[in-house]
Amino acid sequence: METQEVNTILWIGTSVSLFFGGGLIFLVLFYQNHLAKIRREEAEMLLKTSLQSEKNERKRIAADIHDGLSGDLNAARNFVAILQSQEADDDKVAILKGIHTGIEAALQNTRSISYKLMPPLLESSGLIATLKDYFDRLNTAYPAINFRVYAPNDTHLETGPAYEVLRIIQEFSTNMIKYGNISQCAVTCSGSQSTTTIEIVDDGTPYHFESLYKASNGAGLGNIRSRLKILDAAFQQKETAVGNHFLIVIKTPV
Length: 254
What we know:
Number of domains: 2
Radius of gyration: 29 Å
Strand content: 5-15%
CATH topology of the largest domain: Heat Shock Protein 90
CATH architecture of the largest domain: 2-Layer Sandwich
CATH class of the largest domain: Alpha Beta
Number of strands: 5
Order of helices and strands: HHHHEHEEHHEE
């Protein structure tokens, strides 16, 4: 009888120990998961804040360049033009002409920098017009490559998401030009009441985005992934016989 009681006590004690041990393990795992979740949320919030700060700073610098430096250069160019028209000495006219040409080049560079920082079309005309303008510039700079954008229906994104999509497409196109060995790229934008879909198709060297992202130390693919996370967008690489095909689906706020 005593042996049975001892066994019962041991069994109860073991069960209680296991129960508390299991509970302790559960609490530890729960705390670790909760802590990891908090850290992920903090990292995402920091990322959003960082990218928003970058956008605001780009916008501010672009405005400063456009309104400040460009205005000063325009004034200097006009002043040199006046001096040039009033000067009779051919040598001095040649010098003034060189100065005028240099100011014109500097003015063009400031316009280009301002555009790259924050395309003015994005806020005034939207994503599609901005992409068409951007691709026109690329086609002029790289005549061997044909960049095209299609918008079969009315596609509208708010300026915030549109900015992130623009930067994603710019990252993709930059990588295509540098490493892709492409001859053409097509971006198709389509929208519905609930989603906006962006398709990016090229005929360049095939690669697997996720594998390259994990193996790469470069910022380009990381920037794409970060902006996709900001957009809370679904991202998919589709199989294709030639080149690469990427699909981005963004939920449109109702």
